Amino acid sequence: MTVLALDFETANERRDSACAVGLAWIADGRIVRRESHLIRPPEMRFSPGNIRVHGILPANVADQPDFAGVMAPYLGDLTRGLILAHNASFDIGVLRAGLARAGLPVPALSYLCTVQIARRVFPAPEGCGLGKVARRLGIRFEHHDAGEDAYACAAIALAAMRQTETPDVHGLATAIGVPVTRVASGPPLPRRAPGAISNRAMAAFPAAPSALSFTIRGSTGNRYSVVLEERAGGAQLRCTCTAGRYGMRCRHVKALEVGDITDLLSDNANDVELLARMLGAQARVLGVA
User: Fold this and answer.
1) What class of enzyme is it (predicted)?
2) 95-140 pLDDT per residue, tens
């Protein structure tokens, strides 16, 4: 089976706004191929915060191919293979959203998250963000360049294989108890809408949404709880950090809303995906998907 690492950069908060992609293929215990491309997103709307992260400007992508044109050569490997990504729920969400926005079929996919791999094989109090793990392992790369990030992701998986003396990525997953996640074909997560989750959206999910809670690592190493609570206007995420106690949508809440599990300490990454689906259901109810 083909194994390849995947990384996207996005122009704004929408998952269908990919502006760059990187891929790195693994075979015979090494990285055998690397690709990197800029992408012209459907809307040339770049958020300043995203630009600060990756440095990509609208002018850089104005003459580049769109999502379908860039991704078409790689869809066979992505759909038939095993995808690695660091904070995989985000990158898989971008892939699915981009395909749907481009009018392409959204296939079933199988993936492993190297954040979860790193937490089991290379744990550290500072956390398991891509740059932090790479630094601990001596992996040199340019962070937030999609091609470089995909390379670092693949290199982390290879390092974990060596550390655990497992012959391949599937053996690694079995050895450390991180199951391969499989998502069915169909529509991607729609655009999320901030604020309360409507009762109509919540009704689509029999697993009581008010039971969702997450433990998050703060920037100084403090532990915070983010809980989905029933409010007058619907269910909302509340964080125990200082900003959250003052009723603000803090960065911990915003990260969970977009599927970012980099600082997730609790072992419930699947609940983050459930949360994202609930937010997607809300978007459909409110007519903003």
Assistant:
1) hydrolase
2) 999 999 998 889 999 999 999 999 999 999 989 999 999 999 999 9
The domain locations on the chain are 3-183, 199-286
Greater confidence (260 vs 23) lies with 23
C-alpha 106/C-alpha 108 separation (Å) is 7
Structure tokens at 216: 């998050």
Q: Are 257 and 194 in contact (CB under 8 A)?
A: yes
* pLDDT at residue 207 in the model: 47
Q: In the CATH hierarchy, which top-level class contains the domain 3-183? A: alpha beta
Inter-residue contact 71 to 98 (CB < 8 Å):
yes
In angstroms, the CA 122 to CA 86 distance is 14
DSSP characters over 212-247: -EEEEE-TTS-EEEEEEEEETTEEEEEE-SHHHHTT
| pTM of the shown model | 0.72
How many angstroms separate the CA atoms of 92 and 83, rounded? 9
The CA-based diameter of the chain, rounded to the nearest angstrom, is 56
**272 in Cβ contact with 259 (< 8 Å):** yes
The residue written with tokens 């790689």 in the block is 74
Examine the pLDDT at 145 and tell me if it is beyond 90.
Answer: yes
Q: Kindly write down the DSSP assignment for every residue of 169-214, as one continuous string.
A: HHHHHHHHT-PPEEE-SS--PPPP-SSPBPHHHHTT--S-GGG-EE
Dihedrals φ, ψ of 62, to 5°?
A: -55, -35
CA distance 210 to 68: 38
Question: Residue 286 above 80 pLDDT?
Answer: no
Strands 213-217 and 109-113: unpaired
Question: Tens of pLDDT along 18-58?
Answer: 999 999 999 999 999 999 999 999 999 998 888 999 999 99
